[in-house]
Amino acid sequence: AYIEKIVVTNFKSYGTEKLEIPLGEGFIGIVGPNGAGKSNIGDAISFGLGLSTSKTMRAKNLTHLIYSKQGHREDFAQVDIYFAKPQIFGYDEFVITRIIYKDGKSLYKLNGKIIREKDLHLILAKGGIYKEGYNIVLQGDIVKFVKITPTERRKIIEDVA
Amino acid sequence: AYIEKIVVTNFKSYGTEKLEIPLGEGFIGIVGPNGAGKSNIGDAISFGLGLSTSKTMRAKNLTHLIYSKQGHREDFAQVDIYFAKPQIFGYDEFVITRIIYKDGKSLYKLNGKIIREKDLHLILAKGGIYKEGYNIVLQGDIVKFVKITPTERRKIIEDVA
Amino acid sequence: KYSAFMEAFNNIRKNFKQIYSKVSYQGKADLLLENEEDPFSGGVSIFVKPRGKDVQYVEAMSGGEQTLAAMSLIFAIQEYKPSVFYYFDEIDAHLDEANAYLLGQMIKEKSDKVQFIVVTLRENLANFADKLIGVTSKDGISKTLTFKSLKEVS
Amino acid sequence: KYSAFMEAFNNIRKNFKQIYSKVSYQGKADLLLENEEDPFSGGVSIFVKPRGKDVQYVEAMSGGEQTLAAMSLIFAIQEYKPSVFYYFDEIDAHLDEANAYLLGQMIKEKSDKVQFIVVTLRENLANFADKLIGVTSKDGISKTLTFKSLKEVS
Ligand SMILES: Nc1ncnc2c1ncn2[C@@H]1O[C@H](COP(=O)(O)OP(=O)(O)OP(=O)(O)O)[C@@H](O)[C@H]1O
Ligand SMILES: Nc1ncnc2c1ncn2[C@@H]1O[C@H](COP(=O)(O)OP(=O)(O)OP(=O)(O)O)[C@@H](O)[C@H]1O
Ligand SMILES: [Mg+2]
Ligand SMILES: [Mg+2]
C-alpha cells in the first residue's frame, strides 16, 4: 500500500480551493523554497491519520490548521488521504477523511463513512502505522532517536514488538 | 581585533600534538566531513574564553574536553587564543590561555600571566564578548533567538544596553 | 510478553549493527539491555563507535554522526516491522554531501517495497527520487507541481 | 537604566526591521514592548510577516523562515553593539539554496569590519568566504588545512 494522493481543502497554507497533492509509489522527493508549504504536507498526513498533536503540527490548537488570511479563518479544513493497493488494511478502496471545524469539533471518515479515531488506528496498525510511531520524522526531530533515554528507547521496541 | 589563530594541545579530537589552527581577518569558512572536528573549533573558542558550560561544549564535564583514546585520557588540555590588532582590549599583544587538568582544576592566563575568569571577562567585554553572549551560535541553536520567551528576549536587550 | 520483546529486540539489534556498519564504512554500533536478566527493569542503551574512533557518548557525537546513528535505528526497525510509508522532513539538515548521497541511495534501495516521502533542500538527495513534488507559494497560498528531476526546473 | 534600555531597544528594533525587510524581499518584522509604560514589567515580543503572508506566530513559521528572523535579530544587535568576532555553526542547516546564498552575501558584506567564523556544509555559502579551513580526521585525530576556495579541493 502507499499514499497515492492527498486532497486538501482550507488546510494550513493550501488556500480555499480544493487541491490535489499527488504522491505515489516509491521514493517521492518534496522540494521547494523555504516557507513554501513542504512540511505542511507532512502535517496533512499526521492530521488526516490522527497521528500527532496540534503542537507537533505547529498549531496552537487544531483550529489553527484551518486556512486563515488577514484574520479571517475559514469554517473548516478537510484532508482526504487516498491509499492505493490497500489490501493490507483489509480494503480494496481506502480513503481516510478528517474534518476540523472552526468550533473545534473534528470527525473522521473511512470511505465516506464516519469512524472513531481508535477504530481507525486499529486498522492503520495493520499497515504498521501507529500514533507516535517511527515512520514520521518531523523537521528537526531526527536526532531524538539517539538522544532519548534508555527507558524511552526500550518502550519504542516494546511498541514494535 | 580578530582571532588570528588558536593553538590546541590535547583538546577534544585534536590529538596530543600541539596544533595550530589558523583563522584570520574577515569571513573564515570552516568546512569538512561530518565528525571531522569543525564544531570542536567553536568549543575551543568557548572553552578558551570561558564563555560557556561543559554541557554546551558537549562534554559531561570539563575533563571530557581532554583528548582521550581507548580509555586513556591525557593529563591536561590547553587552548591558546591569539587576537590580532587587540588595541580595543587595551593591549598590543593579546593571548588568552586556558588549561584544564585531569583532576578538574582549570586556570586562565593573559599573555602568560595568571588571571581570574571574572577579570578576563571584564576585559573581553570591551570587545563585545560576553558569557552567554550572542556572537556564538552553536550547531542547532540558531532558532532559539525566535523561540525564547518575551521576557528572555528583553533580558538579552538589557544585557546589550 | 518477554519473548515478543526479545524477538523484536534481537532482530532490531542485528539490523542496527549491520546498517550502521554500512553507512559508517565499518564503524560499529550496538543496542544493549541495561538489565539482561530482566529487560523491563532497565532500558535499552545505544553504543556508537564511528570508524577509527572510540566508542562515544551519544551526546559527544557530532550532529552528522548522530543523524547517521538515528537513521540506522529507524531503518533497523523498518526492516523488522515495516510501515507502508515513511515521511522524513529535512533529515539531511546536518549531513555532509557524501552522507546525504549515501542516505539518498539507501532510501532508493528500500523504496521498491516501501513508500518514502522525503522533504529535502539538498539537490544530491533529491536526485535519487522517482519523482519530485515541487511546492511553491504566492501571496501565502501553496501549490504543487510534479516533475521527474531537478534538471527539468533549472 | 530605563534610558539605556530604551536606546538599545530602539536601535535594535530599527535595525531588525530594516535587515529583515532586506533578507525577506519586503517582508516585515518588528520588536514590540509588551508593556510600553514600564518595559521591565513585560517582555519584548517579536512579530514576523513574510512577504505576501500575514503576521505569524513564530511557532507556526517554517524552519527556514525562523532562521531568517533569528539571523536578522542577531545582525540587528551586531549593528548596534558589535562583538569583534562571530562564530556560527551550521546556521544554514534549514535554509534553501537561495537563502543560504543571501546569508553568505550578507556575512561577506559585514566582514570588512568584523570577523565571522562560519562552519558550513553548504558549498554556496562557503564560496563567499575569504579563506577556508578544511577539517579532516583520521583514526579519530583532527587536523586542518587552509585553502582559498573549494575549487582547489575538488
Ligand atoms: N492556518 C494557516 N493559514 C495560512 N497559512 C498557514 C497556516 N498555517 C501555516 N501557514 C503557513 O505555512 C507556512 C509554513 O509552511 P511549511 O512549514 O510547510 O514550509 P516549508 O516549505 O516546510 O519551509 P522550510 O523549508 O523553511 O521548512 C508558514 O509561512 C505559515 O504562515
Ligand atoms: N575528548 C575527546 N577525545 C577524542 N575525541 C573527541 C573528544 N571529544 C570529542 N571528540 C570527537 O570529536 C568528534 C566530533 O567533532 P565535531 O563535533 O567537531 O565534528 P563536526 O566536524 O562538527 O561534524 P558535523 O559536521 O557532523 O557537525 C566526535 O567524533 C568525538 O568523538
Ligand atoms: Mg519545512
Ligand atoms: Mg558540527
Description:
- The complex is a heterotetramer, with 2 copies of chain A (161 residues) and 2 copies of chain C (154 residues).
- Chain A is an alpha+beta fold and 161 residues long.
- Helices cover 22% and strands 30% of the residues of chain A.
- Chain A has helices at residues 38-49, 117-124, 144-147, 150-160; strands at residues 2-9, 19-22, 27-31, 68-69, 72-73, 76-84, 94-101, 106-110, 113-115, 136-137.
- In chain A, the strands form 2 sheets. Chain A has a 6-stranded antiparallel β-sheet. In chain A, strands 4-5 form a two-stranded antiparallel ribbon.
- Chain A is globular and about 45 Å long.
- Chain C is an alpha+beta fold and 154 residues long.
- Chain C has helices spanning 2-23, 63-80, 97-110, 123-126, and strands at 28-33, 44-49, 85-89, 115-119, 131-138, 141-147.
- In chain C, strands 1-2 form a two-stranded antiparallel ribbon.
- In chain C, helix 1 crosses helix 2 (63-80).
- The radius of gyration of chain C is 18 Å and the shape is elongated.
- The N and C termini of chain C lie far apart (55 Å).
- The relative contact order of chain C is 0.11.
- Chains in contact: A-C, A-D, B-C, B-D, C-D.
- At the A-C interface, strand 2, strand 3, helix 1, strand 10 and helix 3 of A face helix 1, strand 2, helix 2, strand 3 and strand 4 of C.
- Bound molecules: adenosine-5'-triphosphate (ATP) (2 copies) and magnesium ion (MG) (2 copies).
- One adenosine-5'-triphosphate sits between chains B (12-13, 32, 34-40, 64-68, 139) and C (50, 53, 56, 60-65, 94, 96).
